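Continuing the batch. This is chain 6 of the set; chains 1 through 5 are on the previous pages. Same settings as before, nothing changed between runs. Recording input and output for traceability.
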Amino acid sequence: MRRHLTYANVVATLALVFAMTGGALAAKHYLINSTSQINPKVLKKLHGAKGRTGATGARGAQGLPGASGGPGAEGKQGPLGPSNAYTALNTSFVETKFPENVTLASVNVPAGSYVVTGKVLAINETTARQLASCEVVTNGNEEDSSSATVEPIGGTSFNGRATITLLEGVTLAAPGTVQVDCGTSNASEKMKLTEAQLSAVQVGALSRVGS
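Output for chain 6:
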């Protein structure tokens, strides 16, 4: 039987096409493609329980070294260290007799603490035994003294000679002088003093042990 195109057929076909197109548009409009389209309360319920932390992965390769940093700021000047030494040497012959007291060596030093050493050679050219005494003096104050008995020349193997040594730690609150002064015990006969050596080495602090 031969079909004929009627008005009813055309209307039905158009209605079917519009229905299919509208459904596709509605599906595209309501398609969920982002979590922002879901109610937060509903989204929270969709999350499952938190799983255990996985094992630590293998250590990665060593990265390239970074660029060197710039120089830092210069630090403050540190305190003065025990590096200053002041010395004096007097090789001339100085004659003296009691009660004279002569200065054989002297140095000027700044304020601070010092280890002072001294040495003097005493020569007795008389016929009597004499006593020679020397002392470390700072700013006019006696700090340490030492003495030696000097036999006459020819009396012993020392041939009328004796060496006097000094060792003392001193502290000066202000700049001043450190010196070695010497004298003898005989008021009628002179004694020769020579080879006077003085050294004052500055230190950070002094600690005394014993008397």
